[in-house]
Each structure stands twice: as structure tokens, then as C-alpha cells.
Specification:
alpha/beta; 18% strand
């Protein structure tokens, strides 16, 4: 399950250069969140993956399940994606924002406490505002979770998250403190 953002873009471009990842058979690509924009929009996570990681096309044995977030009814789009999600994912890649959000689970979002749904429509505090996101239940069932938090500001948020690990409403990244974190305290993206 892939993510968007500038750190993900750098990772996808680096992976695309070697082509080694393309030798994996039967890979299924999913998305943890998507902005409610057309797939060719510069802010689309699907578009980002297609322009970077899959710029040479989808390998024949792979499948890709994208969120149809451009659907005029985002609730219908969320339910449709939820219906095709597997019970759990093997690898979940997340990026953390400087506000501590992961996927499109932002501080104070009611989606953080969604107990029934696995994919929901949310309104984010930054544009594009309308988004679809997986809920904590999907994140918590992932077998392996990796979080990218590059730059001094994000490293500081990570350290802050560790101080009060139970307050996920304030910093949603606290959901994944036990994940494998990629931190770079020297550079800024």
C-alpha cells in the first residue's frame, strides 16, 4: 500500500532507476489515501506513482487498485475501495506530515476513531481538501509498516509523538510508533 508526498516521490524515482523491483511477481499495489482529483492531476497519489515508480508501465504480473477519488460522490468512492481491499496488507508505506498526519488522517479528525469503516471520505485542513483515506483499522492490521519522516521538523514531531504515545488525536503518527521509521534529521524536502 503506497503513499504520496515529496519523500515518496524521491523513493519512487530512486526505485524506478534500478528496475530490480519490477522482477517481483504478482505484486498488488494499493493506496492508503488519495486526493479527490482526477488521476492525471498533479496532486493525485495515483498520478505520482504512475509518473515515477511505474513510469515504464505496470509489469504484466502486477495489479493496481486505485481509489476512484474523482467520483462526484466521495462516500460511494470510499465504499467501493473498501469493498476491494484485502483483509490486510503485507507492506504499508506512509509519510508523516509536519503536523503529524499519516495517510489523510489529520490531527483532530473523527476518522481516527472510526471503528467500522476501513476507507472513509475526509475533509483535510490543507488543499486539496476532499480526500479518501484508510482508517486506523487498516493501518493496524498491516504486517509491515514503514514511515518516512524526512527533515529536522519531522524528526522533531516524531520525538514529540513518543512523549505522549496514547494521544493519537493530537498526532495521528502515534498510531505507528512501533513501525519502521526512516528519519533524516539533516535535510529538508
Amino acid at each position: 500500500m503506497l503513499t504520496g508526498g515529496s519523500a515518496a516521490e524521491q523513493l519512487y524515482l530512486a526505485l524506478a532507476v534500478g528496475h530490480e523491483f519490477r522482477k517481483i511477481n504478482g505484486l498488488q499495489i494499493l493506496f492508503g489515501d488519495e486526493r479527490c482529483v482526477p488521476p492525471d492531476h498533479p496532486e493525485s497519489n495515483f498520478g505520482l506513482v504512475m509518473r515515477t515508480l511505474l513510469r515504464d508501465g505496470l509489469p504484466p504480473s502486477w495489479s493496481l487498485l486505485r481509489m476512484n477519488a474523482e467520483n462526484p460522490d466521495p462516500e460511494v468512492a470510499a465504499a467501493a475501495y473498501e469493498a476491494i481491499l484485502p483483509e490486510s496488507v503485507d507492506v504499508l508505506l506512509l509519510s508523516m506530515g509536519t503536523d503529524g498526519h499519516i495517510a489523510s488522517l489529520f490531527p483532530g479528525s473523527s476518522a481516527l476513531f472510526q471503528g467500522r469503516r476501513r476507507v472513509v471520505h475526509v475533509v483535510a485542513p490543507k488543499p486539496p481538501f476532499e480526500r479518501l483515506t484508510v482508517t486506523p483499522s487498516v493501518i493496524m492490521k498491516a504486517r509491515h509498516v514503514f514511515v518516512m519522516a524526512l527533515g529536522k521538523d519531522k524528526a522533531a514531531v516524531y520525538e514529540q509523538a513518543k512523549l505522549a504515545p496514547s494521544n493519537i488525536s493530537e498526532l495521528p503518527a502515534r498510531l505507528v510508533l512501533e513501525a519502521t521509521w526512516f528519519l533524516d534529521t539533516h535535510s529538508r524536502i
